[in-house]
Amino acid sequence: MTQSTQQPGTSQIAAPRSPYKARKAGNFELYSWLFMRGSGVLLVALVLGHLFVNLVLGEGIQAIDFAFVAGKWANPFWQVWDLAMLWLAMLHGTNGLRTIIADYTTRAGTRFALKTLLYFASFVVIVLGTLVIFTFDPCIDPDSTLSVCQTN
Amino acid sequence: MASSPAGTLYRGREGMWTWVAHRITGVLIFFFLFAHVIDTAMVRVSPEAYNAAVETYKNPIVGVMEIGLVAAVLFHALNGIRIVLVDFWSDGPRYQRQMSYGVVGVFLLLLLPFIWRHLTNVFGH
């Protein structure tokens, strides 16, 4: 009876109190929201630890040179630390900037251009940083005093 | 004729200002991250190239700017913890304003000793 009185084009409106159905687009925004909190908590420890070891301990910034980096990356602990920090910080920052672009751009073309630039730049930096950590050779320095460079 | 109609400009309180500062510090840190990965990549070129790049950071003017960078990181980290508490702690929204002042307090507590330590390192050589 009610069906027959319905106007054309209104049949898609769900009945009141019908169960919620998740959109087919998926829950990307929910997971990105959750990722910002999870990665954020990890980054607090990783970044503040990084700043403490590199800028506060010993002679701070004056002690940083090639030998300092070689000494750190001779230890897998710091390789994993820096790799985790690189990936989490880049993804956290890229997602943050994605939000800011979405908030402040009004034209679709501008939004597309800025997001393309952002994703391209982030991809290049993540790949570059990962390659640097994994292909680093501490013995490139002929004056190295590291034990791994003394074997020959 | 009306130059600035009263009541139409949103002026938030602690929650809005921490939100604004969180955005600004976040963008600042993200842009620095690009520079920092590239300067660190110099270790793959040669020890001389890396030492030359890192020498820039020991310059007194850049050394003072680093305090700004660490301040941005500290604020973003502490306010980020506040955001997580507002979202996940049942009493978080009720205490968000008090936590804003907590963020500023802990921020100063950590930043002031760092300024002293960092300036000693930058100018003490």
Describe this structure in words.
The complex is a heterodimer of chains A (152) and B (125). With 152 residues, chain A is mostly helical. Chain A has 5 helices and no strands. Chain A has helices at residues 2-5, 28-56, 66-73, 76-104, 108-135. In chain A, helix 4 (76-104) runs antiparallel to helix 5 (108-135). Chain A is elongated. The termini of chain A are far apart. The mean pLDDT of chain A is 88. In chain B, helix 1 packs across helix 3 (60-88) and helix 3 (60-88) runs antiparallel to helix 4 (96-123). Chain B starts with 13 loop residues before the first helix and ends with a helix. Chain B has helices spanning 14-41, 47-58, 60-88, 96-123. Chain B is mostly helical and 125 residues long. Chain B has one domain (12-123): Fumarate reductase/succinate dehydrogenase, transmembrane subunit (3 helical TM bundles of succinate and fumarate reductases, Up-down Bundle), CATH 1.20.1300.10. Chains A and B meet through helix 2, helix 3, helix 4 and helix 5 of A and helix 1, helix 2, helix 3 and helix 4 of B.
**Gap between N and C termini of chain A:** 92 Å
Number of strands of chain B: 0
Uncertain regions of chain B: pLDDT < 50 for 5+ in a row? Answer: none
Q: How many alpha or pi helices of chain B?
A: 4
List keywords for this structure.
heterodimer, A: 152 residues, mainly alpha, 5 helices, B: 125 residues, 3 helical TM bundles of succinate and fumarate reductases, 4 helices, 78% helix, 0% strand
